[in-house]
Amino acid sequence: MSKIRSLYVCSACGTESSQWFGKCSDCGVYGTLEEQLLPSTSSPGSIRSSRSARKITSPIGPRSSLPISEISEVGEVRFSSGYTELDRVLGGGVVPGSLVLIGGDPGIGKSTLLLQTANRLAQRLSRILYISGEESARQIKLRASRLGIGLDEASQKDIDNHLYILPETDLETVLHELEQLRPQAAVIDSIQTIHFASLSSASGSVAQVRECTSALMQVAKRENITLFIVGHVTKEGAIAGPKVLEHLVDTVLYFEGDRYASHRLLRSVKNRFGGTHEIGIFEMVQQGLQEVSNPSELFLGSRDEAMPGTATVVACEGTRPILVELQSLVSPTSYPSPRRSTTGLDYNRLQQILAVLEKRIGVPFSKLDVYVASAGGIAIEEPAADLGIAMAIIASARDFVIDPRTVFIGEVGLGGQVRSVPQLELRLKEASKLGFSKAVVPKEQNYGEGFGLEIVAVGKLTQAIAASQSVQLHKS
User: Fold this and answer.
1) Is 444 left (phi over 0), alpha (psi -120 to 50) or beta?
2) Higher-scoring residue by pLDDT: 52, 252
3) End-to-end alpha-carbon separation of the chain, Å?
4) Which pick of 184, 338, 374, 437 has the fewest CB atoms within 10 Å?
5) DSSP secondary-structure letter at 325?
6) Do the beta carbons of residue 438 and residue 403 sit within 8 Å?
7) CB-neighbour burial class of residue 398 (10 A; exposed 0-12, middle 13-18, buried 19+)
8) How much is the pLDDT for 4?
9) Closest of 392, 342, 393, 344 to residue 365, by C-alpha
10) What does the DSSP assignment read for 138-153?
């Protein structure tokens, strides 16, 4: 009879340890090591000795591997999910047999997005299975009716015949249903609720998530079923469970958004069939989620009434350029330490830009409060927005209006120089398409034809400030 040994697994990162510690040695989180009882296996020494004692009788040479030149090139067959934004994030469509993991904060709309996607897939494919471990069949039906799914009499019959609902948490039952029904696509909502009875740990633990995902992956690959898996997130925003969960799946998507804003961002952080850091934009309306075909309209203010302290930048998320209006407010401080506040922008990046402006331009920001925000609260992390941030702050400090049809593209160096950015032509093309007439870009970069824009190439911040002072406000 084999002995039972204890193994301590971190519920935050999945690190295994032979003894218990108060803090995980890998991720540094306290109180996350959980005990698991495992049967003892052969020692590594015995395994090595058995391998050394084994005689090699087969001829020398590879038995299963092939030279890369002999492997045939087969193009990926994709099908549309029914949402252009979701297809963009997935790399051009859904790949049959792939595993897609979607994480996000509670109430952000993960279940709504996948139920609507399952409904659209049911109108194109023969069988779609929606597995829910969090809601009953009646609750799913009520939510579907609220979203307008199945209300159209012309398509009611097709949807009812193609969209199947299974409220279940037992892994064996889920696997049996997948093997018997053999749907083209299935939704698991969520992986933390699926339970494998052979394991003693609770649902959502490291062992449960790892084993359930591995079993689902084997069935999906064998039966060529596309799986959309919902994953819960921790308070830090990472997907709960072991990191092996993100390694097992083919695509990892994050559904982001502010609970006080209507727009939602679907962001790709891993994709074996396409590029990463692509985003899809949705808007939460009464009938659920709908796509935003022109996302720049959400993050651009009114260009008819210009105000001091505003500037427009072109941010790139993957291959998608988005025009965003930045707003700044600079006022004298009444505290010993001036306040710095950002919405949608990196706080440390703002501190660096303020230090450069005070050193190179001479504005005493150490005595001024500075507030900077992006329209709509969209997160802008790339350095290409530095020039727009600096111009918005200077315009508010010196009280002048920037031409609302001017965009700023460039990274600001510590010496006050304006540096080049990637995908400049793509950004200029998007600005021209939306009716902008002028662009301030880095001098050292080739901007091509300019796409009908008046191009102002600058090498330093002082040149950019001189080019942006189009209207001076006269104080009464």
Assistant:
1) alpha
2) 252
3) 93
4) 437
5) E
6) yes
7) middle
8) 64
9) 393
10) HHHHHHHHHTTTT--H
Pairwise CA distance, residues 442 & 423, whole Å = 12
Q: Residue holding tokens 């969090």?
A: 134
pLDDT mean over 70-92: 86
Q: Which residue has the tokens 């005689």?
A: 55
pTM for the full predicted model? 0.79
Least confident of 175-179, 305-309, 337-341, 466-470: 466-470
Shortest CA distance to 428 belongs to which of 441, 444, 445?
A: 441
Decide: 324 and 312 in contact? Cβ < 8 Å.
yes
Helix (H) and strand (E) counts in the chain: 12, 23
Residue 162: enclosing H or E segment and its boundaries?
Answer: helix 153-162
Provide mean pLDDT across the span 412-427.
94
Q: Which two tokens stand for residue 229?
A: 């898996």
Distance, in Å, from the CA atom of 198 to the CA atom of 242, rounded to the nearest integer, reads: 19
Q: Higher confidence at residue 269 or residue 304?
A: 269
Give residue for tokens 């993957």.
318
Task: Classify 250 as helix, strand or coil.
Answer: coil
| Tokens describing residue 245 | 């969960």
- DSSP per residue over 373-406, as a string? EEGGG--B-SGGGHHHHHHHHHHHHHTEEPPTTE
With beta carbons less than 8 A apart as the criterion, state whether 401 and 395 touch.
yes
Alpha-helical runs (H) found in 200-346: 206-223, 244-248
Beta strands 454-458 and 438-442: pairing type? parallel
Q: pLDDT tens across 88-98, in order?
A: 999 999 999 99
Tokens 């796509």 belong to 291
Residue with tokens 């963009």: 88
Specify which residues 418 forms β-bridges with.
Answer: 412
The Cα–Cα gap between 418 and 387 comes to 7
In the numeric block, the tokens 């919405």 are attached to 343
359-405 per-position pLDDT tens digit:
999 999 999 999 999 988 888 989 999 999 999 999 999 999 999 89
As given in the structure block, the two tokens for residue 41 are 């296996």
The CA distance from 34 to 30, in Å, is 11
SS3 content of the chain, % helix, strand, coil (to 5): 30, 30, 40
Give residues with Cβ within 8 angstroms of 346, minimum separation 6. 381
CB 272 within 8 A of CB 314: no
Instruction: Find, among 424, 462, 177, the residue nearest to 313 by Cα.
Output: 424
How far apart, in whole angstroms, are the C-alpha atoms of residue 125 and residue 183? 9
Q: In angstroms, rounded to a whole number, what is the distance separating the alpha carbons of residues 187 and 172?
A: 16
